[in-house]
Backbone:
C-alpha cells in the first residue's frame, strides 16, 4: 500500500474556482517525493488536503493507510508537518517548545526530556536549546520546527519549502537531514521552489500546473524527455529583439529566457550550433553581448510543462540574516 495515495483528488472553492483538478498520486513508503508548481498552481491546496487541514470536495486521498476525510485524527497521529511559516512561541526556549510538543503527542513523561534532547542534538541546536526562540535566526527556527515534526517518529513527513530563504550552510544541513530520514525509511513529501533541491533529494518529482499533475517521474527520466540543450542569448545595446527572434527561428524552438538574457532557443546539436547562430546574428547586424549553453535540467522540464520558470529557480537562497 502506498504511503500517500490520491485518486482524482479535487478541491473547489466558492465561485467555482477549482484549485486542484483530479490529481492522482501513489508515493511509496520510504520515498522522497518532490512536488513542484508555479504560484497558484494548486500545490499548497494539495498539501493542505493531504495533511487534513482542508477537506477535499472530490476524489479521495489516503495517507499512512488512512482516509484524510473520514479518518483525519488517525492521519494526524502518523504524520509530521513542517510548514514554511512555523508558528513558534518566541518567548519559549527551544527545549521548552520541543518538550511541549512531545507531551502533546503523548510521549511517556519519563521519555519527554530524553526524546527532546535527542532531536535538539540531531538538528544542531544544542548550544541554543536554552535560548528564547525569538532570538533564533530563520535557519534555526526551521531546524527546530523540523525537530518538532519528528518528535513522535512519524512514518510520513511533509516539508513545505523547508529551505526557502536560508543561507547555503543551513540549506545543506537540512538536505542531509532529509537524506538521513530517507535512509531510516521515512516517506518525505517535499514541496520546494528550488529545482536543484528536487534534483538532489527526490526519488521522483511531480509537477502541478493549473490544478493538474502535468509531469511525474525521476529527475533523470524527466530531463531525458526534454533531451535538448538550449542557448541563452543577451544582445548588445540597441539590439533589435524582434529581428533576433526571426533569425533564431531558423535554428530551433524559442523558449522563455532566464534572468539576465533576452532570448533563448533550443539547439538540438548543442555546442556545434553556437558558431552558426552567432554568424547569423552578426549577418543581421545584431551583436551578441553574452551567451550561455545550458544542458537539459529540471528547469527545462518545468518550462516545457508549464510555460514558465519556477519562481525560485534562479535564486541563491541567501537570507538577509545568518542562519
Residues:
Amino acid at each position: 500500500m502506498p504511503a500517500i495515495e490520491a485518486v482524482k483528488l479535487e478541491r473547489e472553492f466558492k465561485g467555482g474556482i477549482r484549485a486542484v483538478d483530479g490529481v492522482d498520486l501513489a508515493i511509496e513508503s520510504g520515498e522522497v517525493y518532490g512536488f513542484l508548481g508555479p504560484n497558484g498552481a494548486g500545490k499548497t491546496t494539495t498539501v493542505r488536503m493531504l495533511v487534513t487541514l482542508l477537506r477535499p470536495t472530490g476524489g479521495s486521498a489516503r495517507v499512512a493507510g488512512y482516509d484524510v476525510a473520514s479518518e483525519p485524527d488517525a492521519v494526524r497521529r502518523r504524520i509530521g508537518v513542517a510548514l514554511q511559516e512555523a508558528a513558534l512561541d518566541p518567548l519559549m526556549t527551544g527545549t521548552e517548545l520541543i518538550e511541549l510538543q512531545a507531551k502533546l503527542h503523548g510521549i511517556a513523561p519519563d521519555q519527554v526530556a530524553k526524546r527532546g534532547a535527542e532531536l535538539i542534538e540531531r538538528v544542531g541546536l544544542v548550544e541554543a536549546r536554552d535560548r528564547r526562540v525569538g532570538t533564533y535566526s530563520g535557519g534555526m527556527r526551521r531546524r527546530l520546527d523540523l525537530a518538532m515534526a519528528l518528535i513522535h517518529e512519524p512514518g510520513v513527513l511533509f516539508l513545505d519549502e523547508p529551505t526557502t530563504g536560508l543561507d547555503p550552510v543551513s540549506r545543506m544541513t537540512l538536505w542531509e537531514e532529509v537524506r538521513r530520514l530517507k535512509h531510516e525509511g521515512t516517506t518525505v513529501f517535499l514541496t520546494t521552489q528550488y529545482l536543484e533541491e528536487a534534483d538532489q533529494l527526490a526519488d521522483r518529482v511531480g509537477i502541478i500546473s493549473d490544478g493538474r499533475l502535468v509531469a511525474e517521474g525521476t529527475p533523470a527520466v524527466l530531463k531525458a524527455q526534454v533531451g535538448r540543450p538550449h542557448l541563452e542569448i543577451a544582445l548588445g545595446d540597441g539590439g533589435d529583439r524582434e529581428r533576433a527572434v526571426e533569425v533564431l527561428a531558423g535554428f530551433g524552438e524559442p523558449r522563455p529566457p532566464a534572468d539576465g538574457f533576452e532570448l533563448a532557443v533550443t539547439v538540438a546539436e548543442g555546442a556545434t550550433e553556437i558558431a552558426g547562430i552567432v554568424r547569423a546574428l552578426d549577418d543581421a547586424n545584431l551583436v551578441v553581448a553574452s551567451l550561455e549553453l545550458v544542458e537539459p535540467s529540471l528547469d527545462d522540464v518545468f518550462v516545457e510543462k508549464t510555460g514558465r520558470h519556477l519562481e525560485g529557480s534562479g535564486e541563491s537562497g541567501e537570507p538577509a540574516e545568518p542562519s
User: Anything to note?
Assistant: Residues 314-323 have pLDDT under 50 and may be disordered. The first strand starts at residue 4 and ends at 13. The two ends are 39 Å apart (CA to CA). DSSP finds eleven helices and 13 strands in the chain.
